Amino acid sequence: MTPADRLLWRAVGSAGWWTPVLLVATVAGAAAELALPAALGRAVDAAVGATGGESAGRWLAAVGGLVVLLVGAGVVRDYGTGAASARSVAGLRHTLIRHILALDPRTAARHPVGDLVGRLVGQVADAGQAAPTLVLAGTVLLPPVGSLVALTMIDPWLGATFVVGLVLLGVLLRGFVAGASAAVAGYQRAQGHLAGLMVEALAGARTIAAAGTAGREVDRVLAPVPELRRHGTRTWTVLAGAATRGAVLSPMLQLAVVTVGGLSLAAGRLTPGDLLAALQYAALGAGLGTVVSALNKAVRVRAGCRRAAEVLTEPARRYGDRTLPPGPGCLELRGVIVRADDGRPLLDGVDLRVPGGALLAVVGPSGAGKSLLAAVAGRLRDPDAGEVRLDGTPLPDLSAAALHAAVGYGFERPVLVGETVGAAVGCGGDPVPVARAAAIHDFVERLPNRYGTPLAQVAMSGGERQRLGLARALRAERLLVLDDATSSLDTVTEYRVNRALTDRADRRTRVVVSHRIGTAARADLVAWVAAGRIRAVGTHAVLWDDPAYRAVFRS
């Protein structure tokens, strides 16, 4: 079973008990639809006296009951389709979001944000139609097959005529699925590409405005539109072609049934009621609209499942089940190698030991691998070779809860998550101590609802946003990793934050990526990174004797 098939059955399962309800309602509606022509025919024959004095009232009552059943089944089917789809879409979106957030950042980065949003919003909505579409696909042949049986029972010649029409119908639909599948898949890919370009442009809107390149950006964002139009045109062309051929086939088939039925009526093999029923069965069985609609929905569901499954097949980051033993927070990198997608080494054989409770400054020229080393140190990225240990425990062996409680990250441009300011600082506990350490408490106290203020209503500078992100990082119990996390702070605020970070009473291990000479001077150790390797580890005072080290700060 392919990943797309597994996702389709997961969507059907997410619909819950609505799937059997839809099946019962659809089958009941189809049965009533097939019984109605026969009941009408009997009523006509009873009315004209062709059934030997049989009462027409009884058959008219049966017709009325079948109409009521048809209406009731239609109401249940329409409501159940919406309810089942809503449940399936919600379940699939929860699954997809959880998986995306569980991916390794490097893996997630291979998918543009706009493309992921397109899959989550558009393609999952298509895949969520799986339950009603499966029911529809499983019952779509009931009307033509039932009509064939009924026509054969009325007159075998009518059944034979109808078989010829069904063969033509099969030939007509033979190429529809393949053509529509390719067109829909191409349309969804182009749609995802367009969404990705649009998200990139919105993220860089200020830069585009400042550079005056809006015209070029519009052309770049709209570049996938011709492809989108081509696939969309192809989709509608296939649908229109099938509908047009069906519009020709259906009346021809009904005309053939009328001709054969008229001859049978003249020969005395049919009653007027039988002819009326035969005409209705011919119209019901030859109706191509339901079949085309079912196939079109099946194609879209299949394409949506395939697009969503492409993300779900990406391996999620795995965690162990261990917790950290008691320890001071000793960090060790042993033979760490990280490669680019083209195989080029970005970190090459890094060996580093940071004593528990020490403050390590990571310095080096731009592109040396400082941020990558910081990412590896707290398992934002797993190395391609080597291992990283915290208090002797390999980081991949830790449970997610243990890792996230022990390690905290602060970034130059943090993304704040949560409904309120307090939620952005972190869940649980008192946010005030870490907010004070990050020099953001006074700012929060001036907000209307302080830590309960909705995050979306707070206007913040880059420095204030950076300090809120830093406060969240300061909740770490054992290892604090800061990647240029104080670069947007003014001098006074930076001094207050650095004083908190260099406090000797802080027993956590701190790894700080910085370009500031003051940070390196206050650190217990400095790791000098160059070209993906550790060039030297020592105190700032000792390393300062090397002219190349001094040049790092001058640059």
TrEMBL record:
Which SMART domains would you find in this protein's record?
AAA
Output the Pfam families linked to this UniProt entry: ABC_membrane, ABC_tran
Among the entry's GO cellular component annotations, what is one? Answer: plasma membrane
Organism this protein belongs to = Micromonospora chaiyaphumensis
Judging by the UniProt lineage, the source's domain of life is Bacteria
Q: Which GO terms describe its molecular function?
A: ABC-type oligopeptide transporter activity; ATP binding; ATP hydrolysis activity
Ranges for domain ABC transmembrane type-1 come to 21-300
Per the annotation, which location comes first and is thus the protein's main one?
membrane
Q: Which InterPro entries match?
A: AAA+_ATPase, ABC1_TM_dom, ABC1_TM_sf, ABC_transporter-like_ATP-bd, ABC_transporter-like_CS, P-loop_NTPase, Type_1_exporter
Membrane-related topology note? Multi-pass membrane protein
What residues does the ABC transporter domain cover?
331-554
Q: Which residues cross the membrane?
A: 12-36, 56-76, 134-154, 160-185
Location relative to the cell? Cell membrane
What protein am I looking at?
ATP-binding cassette, subfamily B
Which UniProt keyword terms apply here?
A: ATP-binding, Membrane, Nucleotide-binding, Transmembrane, Transmembrane helix
